[in-house]
What we know:
Blueprint: H1 5-16, H2 22-28, H3 33-43, H4 59-64, H5 67-93, H6 98-108, H7 118-131, H8 136-145, H9 147-152, H10 166-175, H11 184-193, E1 197-199, E2 206-208, E3 218-220, E4 223-225, H12 229-237, H13 240-254, H14 261-273, H15 278-286, H16 304-315, E5 318-319, H17 322-332, H18 354-369, H19 382-388, E6 397-398, E7 404-405, E8 407-408, H20 411-415, H21 424-431, H22 438-444, H23 449-457
Antiparallel strand pairs: 1-2, 3-4, 5-8, 6-7
Amino acid sequence: xxxxxxxxxxxxxxxxxxxxxxxxxxxxxxxxxxxxxxxxxxxxxxxxxxxxxxxxxxxxxxxxxxxxxxxxxxxxxxxxxxxxxxxxxxxxxxxxxxxxxxxxxxxxxxxxxxxxxxxxxxxxxxxxxxxxxxxxxxxxxxxxxxxxxxxxxxxxxxxxxxxxxxxxxxxxxxxxxxxxxxxxxxxxxxxxxxxxxxxxxxxxxxxxxxxxxxxxxxxxxxxxxxxxxxxxxxxxxxxxxxxxxxxxxxxxxxxxxxxxxxxxxxxxxxxxxxxxxxxxxxxxxxxxxxxxxxxxxxxxxxxxxxxxxxxxxxxxxxxxxxxxxxxxxxxxxxxxxxxxxxxxxxxxxxxxxxxxxxxxxxxxxxxxxxxxxxxxxxxxxxxxxxxxxxxxxxxxxxxxxxxxxxxxxxxxxxxxxxxxxxxxxxxxxxxxxxxxxxxxxxxxxxxxxxxxxxxxxxxxxxxxx
Length: 465
């Protein structure tokens, strides 16, 4: 696909957000590119926390509860988690401030944490959103002190007489250096430095338990001293390997799955010498000639969240029940605020197999045209796949238990942004980041405009951004 202002703008807003509506694409295509980049950072400079209501009790009260009381507390926490999921998704869909949310989504898959307790989840989410465009040192220290991380990687149980090494290990292997740049002794000594770091259940606030901290001398990566957790984090940041490891992951996420070694090295140099200024790094990436090269456009497979949010952005999907939005995420394999493990979600080709691809191709018809869709958990059988590919009809989506998934899309508002005489070529340029294949060109035909839109949205090409 040739380079055009529209394609470049789409590329920018798929990497920095959740794409654009046709009207936005038409408008932004007329604005100088560097001005658009400046506006991305300007509109993402204002931090507004995502807040919902929580039922909270102290750890002592919770432990004293009978089973039914604990069940009710956990249920209230799950309901608040669903609200947070929906609130964050609504922020992601908005173009204003989209870079802040996209950065938070990246860090959510890198500095991975999860909590049973909704107030901890809210705290963790807002740390990612507030500091995701700031400096890495602040972000890393805030996340390390968050109740979600302290609970998820067992640092709440890290005590001077029985160090728990979970957090120290993942801090180096997954969050900073990468595998192979530390020793088992480094893990043990770092764990000692983080002893006593805990939190209070009712407030989710960090709590340093002085009597459980190991104040003894420690030797970490060749240096000896009475180190605490902040000292360990500072030493990890002082190693340029942290910049190399993280920027390579950022390159695959924000630019292209296949790493361009020379440009990735420039990213690492920039990140390290700036003192880990995330906004400076992202501005460097977005304004580079390499980022604007057609060779890196349309190379990423949309994550489930990107796929859902892209459709929601264009068609204003409204789920009748709050939990249905989460069921849809679960069906596709990515639930916001509920990562699969400490490594986060596997990206790229990991999103696509015979089951998930068929489900993705059927999704636009099911959401926008009341198509049939059996939404079992991932790993459906061949029989389930046959049902997924059944011809679209008037039946709404149902799950395996026969429950309806009611969603109200605003197709009229989307179509109002298009000329009724829109050509297929124009649709391809508006909705795709890659060339339409001969198969898609023959499938689209010359029918009703919404039918043609659905054909494009239901194509393998639409899975790419």
